[in-house]
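Teaching soon. Got one?

===
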Amino acid sequence: MKATIYDIAREAGVSIATVSQVINGKGKISEKRRAEIMEIMERLHYQPSAIAAALTGKQTYTLGLLVPDISNPYFAELARAVEDRSRQLGYSVVICSTDNKDERVERYLNLLQQKRVDGMMIGTGIENAEILSPLLQQSIPVALIARHMPALSVHTVTIDDKLGGSLAAQHLLELGHTHVAVLSEPFKVSSSQERVRGFRETLTKAGYVLGPDQIRESAADLNSAKQEALRLLSGQNRPTGLFCCNDMQAIGAIQAAKERGLRVPEDVSIIGFDNTILASVTSPPLTTIAQPIEELGRYAVDILIEELKDNNNEPKQRILKPELVVRASTGHRGSQ
């Protein structure tokens, strides 16, 4: 037999009204007591009926999360952070991989609306921001994760991508690398735009120019990055330092360097972005710009649920700081 709200109330020694307040995130209940009741619900495998809630126009306690590719370690770690925080607060998460394609984004948004999710988190690239307009018209809370869409009145949780690009450039310059290149995701991804901008501006301030031929775009997957890096690292005029806009691209670049017979970092220094688990296990371990992935996921969930509780859709913005993590994939140019 499935546990009922009466079972939860009896086990916790409270009224069903109190259990209902915990489920709905309402009422003046202490955090300790709320956590105790949530633990009992989890132990008894109690699940409020999402279907019944949807039919009555109530909350379904589900959230949607759109990411480009759940197989990418960065998005897998982000999804886990979102899922963990949501579960703590009594919510489930539906995760969709979009490959950064607008037609898939639109299809998943329609599907999630049909499922009556209470709010949506967008961590994927979108070229046509109008795709999100139906959500806003229906007052469905939306939070962007690591994305910028200034034209839309939505919550945003991101990092200072421009600062991250600047940190990467500064690190390579301090190591003596002035002939550098960038491997970027497609520029429709706003975070990559900002990372490249920060990188370029820091080089310019130091008196160096990053020409168009020194910036290459590739998909975020390892093989696409490797193929583009093979082209970048060809010939006598190859860069001695390479900034990649995510860790997967950087690992692809390391593979490309080895295929070209180049040593990392003796012949070419490579720096990534994200600080996923792969950064510490690749050979050599990857220098990278670390994102606070767990905080990004947690804040996105919190912002959505705050709006659901308070019915205040005033857009909130939180910008987190990236950090440079130095490992063995970068070294002094003089040691080459």
